[in-house]
């Protein structure tokens, strides 16, 4: 290679051509945005494609219903994001939602709406505390511990109701939990606020830094003197509150509560979090990605319904999107990710 060739090679940036003065060109800038926010691009592209195929997609009634569905998954996913960023997992989501919802339905005739919601959140925190203690101090792996408590909580829910459905007769409660501001559902607004709070907790607090640190390398976090055990318990409690908050709105939407109302719901929640870019191995979490992940699955399900796709094909397509999104994210992150820095 000649000296001229060497100079030419050294002066050419590895990411592609740039404008004079070293500033990136428009095409390169666009590509960087697309590669970094590929999930947002996919969501926008999906919305446009479905809107062109079925203009009814853009109807305010349909969009409102779509946001309702995203809210339930999203509220629980905020708590799950905190857990997974810490290298933890909670499979007892369905059990916590069932017990919290039944508590609301049971006490509503005898107390105020605020009292019923407060009780549900308190129960969610208490059940999350049980999970946190089992994982942190009894030293049971999160997968096993929360799988066990899933069945425990579901059993409590069925015993409480004797296997029957508990109706919610309060019209005020239903109006609050299913109301809209314009065409935007109240649950979605609560989801947005919860996601912002979750972001601040994860990225702007000592607690969040501790969670990401032990999610990346627990031994190093302990040696650094971080309060790992306390943070583990607290993150399970916070997640339990998020699950209970989802239960409050799910119960209002269904106007009832029962033991099997959220069976399998934990898989939807984990899928939204992982597709959004939170690393299952811990150390990195993104609340924006979780919001986009919840919206992406809601739009996909809504689109398949509008297009008249049979339900069994919906499972296939949803699973394909999940695997593809995770594969793309893993490929992008493998070369550049510094664990614990996200």
UniProtKB/TrEMBL annotation:
Biased composition (Polar residues): 1-12
Record keyword Transmembrane helix present: yes
Primary localization class, coarse: membrane
Keyword entries, A-Z: Cell membrane, Membrane, Transmembrane, Transmembrane helix
Localization of this protein: Cell membrane
Organism this protein belongs to: Oceanitalea stevensii
Stretches that traverse the bilayer: 38-57, 63-84, 91-110, 116-138, 150-169, 181-202, 233-255, 261-280, 287-306, 312-330
Topology in the lipid bilayer: Multi-pass membrane protein
UniProt-recorded name of the protein: ABC transporter permease
The keyword Nucleotide-binding appears for this protein: no
Superkingdom of the organism of origin: Bacteria
One family name in Pfam for this protein: BPD_transp_2
Chain segments carrying region Disordered: 1-22
InterPro entries reported in the protein's UniProt record: ABC_transp_permease
């Amino acid at each position: 290679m000649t000296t001229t060739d060497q100079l030419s090679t050294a002066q050419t940036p590895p990411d592609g051509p740039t404008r004079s003065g070293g500033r990136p060109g428009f095409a390169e800038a666009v590509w960087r945005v697309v590669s970094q926010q590929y999930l947002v691009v996919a969501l926008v592209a999906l919305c446009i494609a479905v809107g062109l195929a079925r203009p009814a997609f853009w109807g305010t009634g349909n969009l409102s219903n779509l946001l309702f569905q995203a809210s339930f998954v999203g509220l629980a996913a905020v708590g799950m994001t905190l857990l997974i960023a810490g290298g933890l997992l909670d499979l007892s989501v369905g059990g916590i939602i069932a017990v919290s919802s039944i508590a609301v339905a049971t006490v509503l005739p005898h107390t105020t709406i605020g009292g019923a919601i407060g009780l549900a959140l308190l129960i969610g925190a208490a059940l999350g505390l049980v999970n946190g203690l089992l994982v942190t101090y009894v030293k049971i792996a999160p997968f096993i511990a929360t799988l066990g408590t899933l069945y425990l909580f579901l059993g409590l829910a069925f015993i409480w109701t004797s296997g029957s459905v508990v109706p919610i007769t309060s019209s005020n409660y239903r109006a609050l939990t299913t109301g809209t501001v314009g065409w935007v559902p109240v649950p979605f607004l609560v989801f947005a606020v919860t996601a912002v709070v979750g972001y601040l907790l994860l990225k702007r607090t000592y607690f969040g830094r501790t969670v990401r640190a032990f999610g990346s390398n627990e031994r190093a976090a302990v040696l650094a003197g971080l309060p790992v055990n306390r943070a583990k318990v607290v993150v399970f409690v916070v997640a339990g509150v998020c699950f209970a908050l989802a239960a409050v709105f799910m119960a209002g939407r269904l106007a009832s509560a029962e033991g099997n109302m959220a069976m399998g719901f934990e898989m939807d929640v984990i899928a939204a979090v992982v597709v959004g870019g939170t690393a299952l191995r811990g150390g990195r979490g993104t609340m924006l990605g979780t919001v986009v992940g919840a919206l992406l699955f809601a739009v996909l399900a809504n689109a398949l319904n509008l297009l008249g796709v049979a339900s069994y094909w919906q499972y296939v397509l949803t699973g394909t999107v999940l695997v593809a999104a995770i594969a793309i994210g893993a490929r992008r992150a493998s070369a550049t990710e510094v664990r614990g820095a996200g």
